[in-house]
Amino acid sequence: MSLPKKCLVDTNVPKTANLATQPDHKSNVPCACVLACIKAIEHVIENRGLVIDAGGEIFNEYLQQLSMSGQPGVGDSFMKWVHDNLWSLPESDRVTITKNGESYDAFPDHAGLANFDNSDRKFVAASNAHPAKPPILQATDSKWWGWKDSLVAVGITVHFLCPEYAKDKCAEKMDK
Questions:
Q1: Is there a contact between 123 and 136 (Cβ–Cβ < 8 Å)?
Q2: Distance CA 3, CA 39 (A)
Q3: Cα 72 to Cα 78: distance, rounded to the nearest angstrom
Q4: Nearest of 97, 71, 69 to residue 83 by alpha carbon
Q5: Whole-angstrom distance, CA of residue 82 vs CA of residue 77
Q6: Rounded to the nearest 5 degrees, what angle is found at the Cα of 95, between the Cα atoms of 12 and 58?
Q7: Please, which residues have CB within 8 angstroms of residue 48's CB and are 6 or more apart in sequence?
Q8: Phi–psi pair at 129, nearest 5 degrees
Q9: pLDDT above 90 covers what percent of the chain?
Q10: Contacts of 35 (CB under 8 A, 6+ apart)
Q11: Quick count: other Cβ atoms within 10 Å of Cβ 40?
């Protein structure tokens, strides 16, 4: 799998990578998915390819769900790396997004995105606000699978690290 040089990283990517050292016995995430997330994080760190919002909303979400100590998992190591390197990333990769109620000015206006999770809108807004519209790395949040076509319609790409998992989980939810 070829990963983009620059991207946004949804929080579930480092959280899924952490399953390698912090197994969740209730989780049915395949080992291949965990490994794909580990490789993606290593790729982002090696290439210094993280795009993030300048106001710290994405960073704060990482901080709430990952350990700043950098341990014990690869996702926690990513958190520490983001903390230690945030201000040395290119300024152009720290984009400004402006909150507008429960959404953002840079969140695309598209009927297929009307029910998009408020908590995930920051990733889409940051991608849309960046001149290159970098892709968003996504691991296990199956709702994104249902929105992928609408996102493509507005120029936002989601790079699914666990496409079969996301697709199957999305289908399960639609059947309920």
A1: yes
A2: 9
A3: 11
A4: 69
A5: 9
A6: 25
A7: 85, 89
A8: -80, -20
A9: 85
A10: 20
A11: 26
Give the dihedral of Cα atoms 116, 119, 124, 128; nearest 10 deg. Answer: 110
Q: What is the pLDDT of residue 42?
A: 96
Q: Could you report how far apart the first and last alpha carbons of the chain are, in Å?
A: 32
DSSP 45-114: HHHT-B-EETTSHHHHHHHHHS-TT--SSHHHHHHHHHHHHGGGS-GGGEE---EETTEETTS---GGGT
pTM above 0.90, yes or no: yes
The pLDDT-based confidence of 65 (bands split at 50, 70, 90) is very high
Length of the chain in residues, anyone? 176
Pairing of strands 99-100, 103-104: antiparallel
In angstroms, rounded to a whole number, what is the distance separating the alpha carbons of residues 51 and 134? 8
Residue that is written with structure tokens 């889409």 in the block? 124
Amino acid at 50: L
